[in-house]
Amino acid sequence: MQIEETMIKMIRLMRSYNPDLPMAPGMKAQFLELRDRFEEQEREGLAVVKSPDANVELNRELLLQRSMVGLQKYGVTTERTDLTPAQWAQHAIEEALDFANYLQALKRNLEDVRELIASVVGQCESGFLPDGETMWAMNEFLKLTEVQGKAP
């Protein structure tokens, strides 16, 4: 269902495109061609083939959204030809470094939550007893978020 909603949003966005907005050379024609293709598929009732895996569908939707954001923000797609392989590599390195920073922040947040739950579990062992389901959930979370501090 989400992918269809995303497609509808994209078509609406394309229909509302203002040709007077500044856009990189050649992008206006490419954008309008893409819009026309979507509208044609919509008229013909072409269905998007779905994966049985919800995560694949989520990633497909996110890729589509990111592609549209990039096109709107930068006026280019990844099919651009003005970058050298070294420049593409530099972009990839910068994205990978951002990704590593996001992972570090996530890890730190998980460690903070783990410490909080460990504290609650310690209080439980000292006499404060939540219901069994809550205790089980906290113990499962502690197992899942156990950080060894070294790469596998």
Provide a descriptive summary of the structure in words.
The protein has about 150 residues and is mainly α. It has two domains: about 1-75, no CATH class; about 85-145. The chain has five helices and no strands. The chain has helices spanning about 1-15, 25-45, 55-75, 85-125, 130-145. The two termini are about 35 Å apart. The relative contact order is 0.07.
Amino- and carboxy-terminal Cα gap: 37 Å
Overall mean pLDDT = 75
What form results from the Cα inertia axes?
elongated
Structural class of the helices, strands and pairings?
mainly alpha
Low-confidence runs (pLDDT<50, min 5 residues)?
none
Gyration radius, in Å: 24 Å
Please give the count of helices.
Answer: 5
Q: What's the number of domains?
A: 2
Q: Helix fraction?
A: over 70%
Total beta-strand segments: 0
How would you sum up this structure in a few lines?
This protein is mostly helical and 152 residues long. The protein has helices at residues 2-15, 27-44, 54-74, 85-125, 132-144.
Looking at this protein, list some descriptive labels.
70% helix; single chain; 152 residues; 2 domains; mainly alpha; 0% strand
Per-chain topology:
Blueprint: H1 2-15, H2 27-44, H3 54-74, H4 85-125, H5 132-144
Helix pairs in contact: 1-2, 1-3, 4-5
